[in-house]
Design a protein that fits this description.
Layout lengths: L1 H7 L1 H9 L2 H43 L11 H37 L8 H35 L8
C-alpha cells in the first residue's frame, strides 16, 4: 500500500507540502487556543462527573430496600436527586460534544498544513458549534446547581443540619 503511494507520487507530493517548517509551525500555533479550550472543557467535565457520581451513589443508597421494603419517606428526595442527575447528565453530554468538536477543530487545523484547500469557514463553523455546545452544557450545569441549592433549602432531609 505504501509502496503504491510512493510510486504514484502522492506520498512525495505530501512530503513536499509538509516539508515547510513554517506551515507546520503555523498549524501548531493555530491549534493552541482550541487545545486550551479542550483542557478547560475537561476540567469542567471533571466537576460535572464528580456530581453525577455523588448523585448516583446517593440514589443507590436511598433506593436500597431496608428489611426487604423500600423507604417510602425517601420518595421526594429520590425524585429531586433523579431530576438533578438528569440535568447533570445532559450537561456532560453537551460538554462532551463540545470536546469532540473542538478536537475536530484541532485535527482540521493540522490538516490545513497538508492541503491547499481553504478551510477557514469550516474551522469557524466548528468553533461556533463548540461554543454553542459548551454554552448549552453550562446552562444545564447551572440548572442542576440551582436545583441542588433550592432543594436543599426547601426540603428538610434527615441528617441535614439546619
Amino acid at each position: 500500500m505504501i509502496l503504491d503511494l510512493l510510486n504514484a507520487g502522492i506520498a512525495t507530493d505530501l512530503l513536499e507540502r509538509t516539508a515547510s517548517t513554517t506551515r507546520v509551525q503555523q498549524a501548531v500555533e493555530l491549534s493552541l487556543a482550541p487545545a486550551f479550550l479542550l483542557v478547560g472543557i475537561g476540567s469542567i467535565m471533571n466537576v460535572m462527573m464528580a456530581r453525577v457520581i455523588w448523585l448516583a451513589g446517593r440514589i443507590e443508597r436511598l433506593a436500597e430496600p431496608v428489611n426487604g421494603a423500600c423507604q417510602v419517606s425517601h420518595g421526594q428526595e429520590l425524585a429531586w436527586l433523579r431530576a438533578r442527575r438528569r440535568l447533570a447528565r445532559l450537561s456532560i453530554k453537551f460538554s462532551t460534544g463540545a470536546a469532540v468538536v473542538i478536537s475536530l477543530v484541532i485535527a482540521v487545523l493540522f490538516l490545513s498544513a497538508y492541503i491547499e484547500t481553504r478551510i477557514g469557514t469550516l474551522v469557524a463553523v466548528l468553533w461556533v458549534a463548540t461554543i454553542g455546545l459548551l454554552i448549552v452544557g453550562l446552562i444545564y450545569f447551572l440548572r442542576e446547581t440551582l436545583l441542588a441549592a433550592d432543594g436543599s433549602k426547601a426540603m428538610k432531609f434527615p441528617g441535614k443540619l439546619d
